[in-house]
Specification:
Layout lengths: L7 H26 L1 H8 L3 H17 L1 H11 L1 H21 L2 H16 L4 H10 L2 H15 L1 H5 L2 H10 L1 H22 L13 H13 L4 H29 L4 H29 L2 H21 L5 H5 L7 H15 L3 H9 L6 H30 L1 H22 L8
Helix pairs in contact: 1-5, 1-6, 1-7, 1-8, 1-11, 1-13, 3-6, 3-19, 4-5, 4-12, 4-19, 5-6, 5-7, 5-11, 7-8, 7-19, 8-14, 8-18, 10-11, 10-14, 12-19, 13-14, 13-19, 13-20, 14-17, 15-17, 15-18, 15-20, 18-19, 19-20
């Protein structure tokens, strides 16, 4: 099994599927760099836009249970093709329709389409690799996927500035069709297992039981806050913080977010290497998330009149300080692929799709809930308060993770 790890036949399908995750990251982070234009054209406040984009994450979370069942029952390729077609349709819808209701519908369709773009390559890797090797590849898959956030920084800022936010969704639709063609050509057809299968409802119950069970409880709790803080900063509040609070023009804000995104690309690969060499997943996850939460509190404290600005005797920290803090945050939070590695190690290969989808459900349900909750916080205290709220959430999730998991080497 492991001899295939370095072969082109093994790597090409995983990389192509990871491009689907790249697309989903581009789609979900597009509103951050176009928040002011979206709010104006849709006739909503920034807080209302947070609620509209939160629908994406609710739809994404809702798709996780049927997704886990479908991946284990039908295989990766047909599921990926259906999802990519759904993304293309949702992107076209977003580019064409007007008003809050139309944009809400587009966000729901996009959320359903994107719901499996990370789990498709993760599930294929989980079925081909040992748990020890899966940690490294989960980081590499996440790193490739996070290039989507790179595309939605400076390149998308330029596109939005010159052609409007709808052009970003047209680009996403074309990318979805291109990735679907590559998946059809390079990802092998699944081998259907013989014999009777449980009903779809019975399989769905298994996903729910796994998510609520003791084996996955710690990972579920940490996942609830882990992705929410990334998407909350990169996908929603980062742009308003840099433009409205720190006074940067759109393209300069995009350049700073580009630096942050580079950390989100390099970080997961680094996490995989650390996991391969150290093997202390619980400790690495706790440390990375705790540091990430602390850095977000520092970002918020560096705003006008913030506690950190006051302590340093400044009106506010310069944007260069935000760049450094956000880069550190990106590296620290990128330890999160090891949540999938801990999950894979807790279950047999035939249950990998269901287990990974249960944890992914928590990732995106948390993103939906916490992003929606950040709207009222931001309305009352501005983007800085929303960023501080997200930092506190990830620190709370870290504490719950440590309380519900045992150190490596101890019996459960």
């Amino acid at each position: 099994m492991n001899t295939r790890e370095g072969s082109a036949a093994f790597m090409a399908p995983l990389l192509v599927l990871a491009c689907g995750h790249m697309l989903s990251n581009l789609v979900r982070t597009l509103p951050a760099i176009a928040a002011d234009l979206l709010s104006r054209d849709l006739g909503v406040t920034p807080e209302g836009l947070a609620s509209l984009t939160g629908a994406y994450h609710f739809a994404f979370a809702a798709g996780q249970i049927p997704l886990g069942v479908a991946l284990d029952r039908f295989g990766v390729r047909p599921v990926a093709l259906v999802l990519l077609g759904t993304i293309a349709a949702g992107a076209v819808l977003a580019a064409l329709v007007g008003g809050p209701a139309g944009f809400l519908l587009a966000q729901i369709v996009l959320g359903l389409g994107c719901c499996g773009m990370l789990l498709c390559p993760m599930t294929l890797a989980a079925k081909l690799l040992s748990p020890a090797r899966f940690g490294l590849w989960s980081g590499l898959i996440q790193a490739v996927g996070n290039v989507g956030m790179l595309l939605s920084a400076s390149p998308l800022a330029w596109l939005v500035e010159h052609h409007g936010w709808r052009a970003g969704f047209w680009a996403a639709a074309l990318m979805g069709l291109a990735v679907a063609l590559l998946v059809a050509r390079l990802v092998p057809a699944p081998v259907v297992s013989p014999g009777p299968h449980p009903s779809l409802l019975a399989d769905a119950r298994v996903v729910v039981r796994m998510g609520l069970g003791r084996r996955l409880r710690g990972m579920m709790l940490l996942a609830f806050a882990s992705f929410a803080v990334v998407i909350g900063v990169r996908g929603l509040w980062g742009g308003p913080w840099l433009m409205a609070v720190k006074g940067l023009p759109r393209i300069e804000a995009g350049n700073l977010l580009l630096l942050f995104t580079l950390a989100l690309i390099a970080g997961p690969a680094l996490a995989g290497v650390l996991d391969r060499r150290l093997g202390r997943r619980r400790a690495l996850l706790a440390l990375g998330h705790a540091v990430a939460g602390g850095l977000l509190l520092l970002v918020a404290g560096g705003g006008p009149g913030g506690w950190l600005s006051a302590a340093l005797g400044l009106a506010m920290l310069p944007p260069l300080a935000d760049a450094a803090l956000l880069f550190g945050f990106g590296l620290a939070i990128s330890i999160q692929p090891l949540i999938f590695a801990m999950t894979r190690a807790a279950v047999p290969p035939e249950e990998a799709g269901k287990a990974l989808s249960a944890v992914n459900l928590s990732f995106f349900l948390g993103a939906a809930v916490l992003q929606a909750a950040s709207g009222p916080v931001g309305a009352g205290g501005g983007p800085g308060a929303a960023i501080a709220f997200l930092g506190a959430c990830v620190l709370g999730g870290t504490a719950l993770f440590l309380a519900t998991t045992r150190p490596e080497g101890k019996a459960a």
